[in-house]
Amino acid sequence: MSKSFEKYQKRRLRSSYVSVVISISLVLFLLGILGLLVLNTKKLSNYFKESAAITLYLKNTVEKDQILNLQVSIDEQEFTKRTKYVSKEEAAEIYKEENGEDFMDFLGYNPLENSIDIYVKADFVSPEKMEEIESLYKNNQFVSSVSYDKPLIDLLTKNVKRISIFILVFCGLATLVVVVLINSSIRLSVYSKRFTIKTMQMVGATKRFIRKPFIWNSVKLGLIGALLAIIELGVLLYYLDTTFPEFGMIDNRVEMAGLFAIVFCLGILITWMSTFLATQRFLNLRTEELYY
């Protein structure tokens, strides 16, 4: 009978440890995702900003060598990320693919113009600077007109800062939730041994002596949970980098290593603090209060 009870207790204990490790790994994984979001907010905003282009429509009288010289001069500008030349034949094909009809069949000629798309660096994507670039080229002898999506630029400029602030606030709140969740898991684990704690205290064991095995055991669980969370983050990063290579999620290895180190240290620190506070609480309770 006693052996069966001991086996039951061991299974229950292992089950408790597994649930604590899973809880720690999941919340640290969530925290790691938020860290990734914070680290890559600027990259994401820059990606969307640099996707906006200013299009220079060229006069039909402009020769190919003149177009090439103009493109080279644009590439040399400090605001230029890259340029792309689109001939009027290519533009007609793009229009046909997007709209499913060939306007040249009933017009008999191609009314479109050759163009150069200027993709601007993120620091120069603002209404004021885009207008300056527009003014720089709209009176150019080779350019018939300049076009870009002004409402989109206004939207990007206004919302990027708001989104960054929102992400930081959200991450702060989420971090607090993560700490509370891990603390709750550890407290439940310690709660199941509250009578053992009080018994050790009654036979003369010091608070430090009683706390030590509980803290060491919780720190080991925190280590395992943190390692699992790091592995999960590594798999997620690999998937994101494979699926969206343009974002360069793992280009900065130092940042990624720092994030993994923070997750690892938090796994240890939070479990240590939670166990210390939980054991301290039960050490300070009177015997009759353990039943409530």
Helix and strand layout, with pairings?
Layout: H1 2-49, E1 53-58, H2 64-75, E2 80-86, H3 88-99, H4 104-107, E3 115-120, H5 127-138, E4 143-147, H6 150-191, H7 194-202, H8 207-243, H9 253-284
Antiparallel strand pairs: 1-3, 1-4, 2-3
Helix pairs in contact: 1-6, 1-8, 1-9, 6-9, 8-9
Low-confidence stretches: none
Secondary-structure element pattern, one letter each: HEHEHHEHEHHHH
- Report the sheet with the most strands, covering strand number, pairing sense and barrel closure: 4 strands, antiparallel
Number of strands: 4
Structural class: alpha+beta
Radius of gyration: 31 Å
Gist of the model:
With 292 residues, the chain is α+β, with helices and mostly antiparallel strands. The protein has helices at 2-49, 64-75, 88-99, 104-107, 127-138, 150-191, 194-202, 207-243, 253-284, and strands at residues 53-58, 80-86, 115-120, 143-147.
Written description of the protein model:
With 292 residues, the chain is of the alpha+beta class. The chain has two domains: 181 residues, no CATH class; 96 residues, Alpha-Beta Plaits (2-Layer Sandwich). 71% of the residues lie in helices and 8% in strands. The chain is built from nine helices and four strands, in the order αβαβααβαβαααα. Strands 2-3-1-4 form a four-stranded antiparallel sheet. Helix 1 runs antiparallel to helix 6 and helix 1 packs antiparallel against helix 9. The longest helix is centred in the first third of the chain and has 48 residues. The mean pLDDT is 78.
